[in-house]
Amino acid sequence: MLTSRRATLFFIAGILAGVLMLAGCGNKTDSKPKGGGLPEVGIVVIKPEKVILTTELPGRTSAHLVAEVRPQVGGIIQKRLFTEGSDVKAGQVLYQIDPATYKAAFASARAAEARANANLIPARLKEQRFRDLVKINAVSQQDYDDAYAALKQAEADLASSRAAVESARINLAYTRVTAPISGRIGRSTVTNGALVTASQPAALATIQQLSSMYVDVTQSSAEMLRLKQHLASGLLKNGASQASVRLTLEDGSAYPLPGTLKFSEVTVDQSTGSITLRAVFPNPKQVLLPGMFVRAIVEEGTNDQAILAPQRGVTRNPAGDATALVVGAEDKVEQRVIKVARTVGDSWLVSEGLKPGDRVILEGIQRAKPGTQVKAVQFGSKPAAAPAAAPQGAAAKK
Questions:
Q1: pLDDT band at residue 382 under the 50/70/90 scheme
Q2: Domain 52-63+211-304: top CATH class
Q3: Which residues of 79-94 are buried (b: 16+ CB within 10 A; e: fewer)?
Q4: pLDDT in tens, 213-238
């Protein structure tokens, strides 16, 4: 009995010792620090880039050439000789005004010209005879002077008659109202039988040339001053004589053909504080129509050594200044106050505070306190994934 009791006690003591050893090993494993080492942050290395800076401005399209057709003589419209909405050529007859009275005036003017020409003949012959007679004192000087004056009067009457003939011919030609330019003609405001007057305020029709289109956009004077400052400081370079312009149409699609910026107004609109810029676009397929609302993307200039910082790496301090966290010497975090000029896509164009080679922190900013040492890894890089272990029992199922 005593022997078995001792054996039982030894067995229980062995079990307790084993439990205590297992507990001690478990506590030792749990006491190890988790995730030891420096905190990792995702960085991007700043590199100078060539960037073409643009600005987007709203605007309206207008025809390259516009001509309002008006009559230059009065009368009754006999016939309209064009189809509304069609393309017409310069010089094409659009309307025919009743020419009867103008034909009669032209015939009367030609008759007056013939009469003046007939009166000129005897006056010239008389002057020639008196010129020889006055030399031998066969006629008085006064008689010759009168003959000479009569000749000049007859010549003036003939010139006046010829001018009247030309005026009558022009008025007769004006009864055929022609197109002053080539282009697309709109609707007619008059019909056959309508009475029109010379230089009336209402146009008979309007012709617009659509092969090229103007796009007038507005830009604030403050933006214009900013652009000039950047060009003067060297932040931007503009070597082209005419800036290139691209268009975004009303439905959001891009117009396929580029245009050129022609000029800008020299006067600021006092009511809006803006100036007008005009660009010209080719329009061979007549996609652009007068009056369309568009957005013009104007090239301001080129920065060959642009410093771009991703927007997610730039914050603001309590003073409102833009700041960025940079991994500096000895992999310690530094806070930089930077100056940003504008956005370029998803980045800021930095004018001061960053230089090529700086490592800007984009990820892990919460763990990156200024002055702390960190482990910098390239932003977006991921560690290689370990091969997945085969599920237990897979071999047994084979």
A1: low
A2: mainly beta
A3: ebebeeeeebeeeeeb
A4: 999 988 887 777 776 776 666 655 66
The pTM of the full predicted model, rounded to 2 decimals, is 0.63
What number does CATH give the domain 99-174?
1.10.287.470
Q: Which residues contact 192 (CB under 8 A, 6 or more apart)?
A: 77, 78, 79, 80
d(CA 188, CA 3): 131
Phi, psi of 241 (to 5 degrees): -75, -30
How high does pLDDT run on average in the chain?
83
CATH topology of domain 42-50+306-378: 2.40.420
How do beta strands 40-45 and 375-378 pair?
parallel
- Residue 214: exposure state from Cβ atoms within 10 A (0-12, 13-18, ≥19): buried
The reply to whether CATH 3.40.50.720 applies to domain 71-97+175-202 is no
Question: Which residue spans of the chain are classified as CATH 2.40.420.20?
Answer: 42-50+306-378
- Give start-end residues of each CATH 2.40.50.100 domain in the chain: 71-97+175-202
What is the DSSP secondary structure assignment for residue 8, as one 8-state letter?
H
Cα–Cα distance, 275 to 297 (Å, whole number): 16
DSSP state of 255: P
